[in-house]
Amino acid sequence: MSNNSTARDKNLVMKISLREFYEAEAVQKRFWGSHREIILAENILAELTRNKSEKILEVGIGDGFLLFQMRQLGYEVIGIDIAMKRCRNARKNVPDTELIVADARFLPFTGETFDAIICSETLEHIPRHQKAISEAHRVLKIAGEYIVTVPFRQTPVKVLCPYCLRSFYLD
User: How far is CA 145 from CA 5, 37, 47, 48, 94, in A?
Assistant: First the structure.
């Protein structure tokens, strides 16, 4: 492969939008409730400390596994994903749940709407993720819970506090 064709291929990759990437990735087969997903869901659900009538937003819904688990426990949930195909796929698993195609950096909700926001294994995929954190802070009720999980031990994890906007690394 020549240097020109490599550069051209690189430019093509750079022109694919974030939405297009996740639309294409959404068609890949996944296992419903893999061992890792189950453990992650158990840990997230353990963090939800309020009553079952609370309103929860999940950012980056994947196939809807966590939404399904929260619905089973009686939570009122709304899910967003940047990829329409992910919302369509999740609709099969959580048919009575509101699913919205939206960018986490531009949430289509009024301020202080949610008691809890869950962003699991998603934040690390969002360019300018500080904007997504600020938006979550905007739509989160005062004293609400913002639960974020990111892959650990793969790369250093930098955390940005949505309240004071200070960042730090997890050891």
Answer: 48, 20, 9, 8, 23
Which DSSP helix (H) or strand (E) runs through 123? Answer: none
Write down the pTM of the prediction.
0.74
- Look at 95 and 1; give whichever has higher pLDDT: 95
Give DSSP secondary structure letters for 130-146. Answer: HHHHHHHHHHEEEEEEE
What is the rounded CA–CA span in Å between residue 86 and residue 146?
22
Positive or negative CA dihedral for 75, 80, 81, 86? Answer: positive
Nearest Cα to 90, choosing from 106, 66, 109, 73?
66
Q: How far apart are CA 78 and CA 91, in angstroms?
A: 12
Integer Cα distance of 20 and 117 in angstroms = 25
pLDDT value at 14 more than 50: no
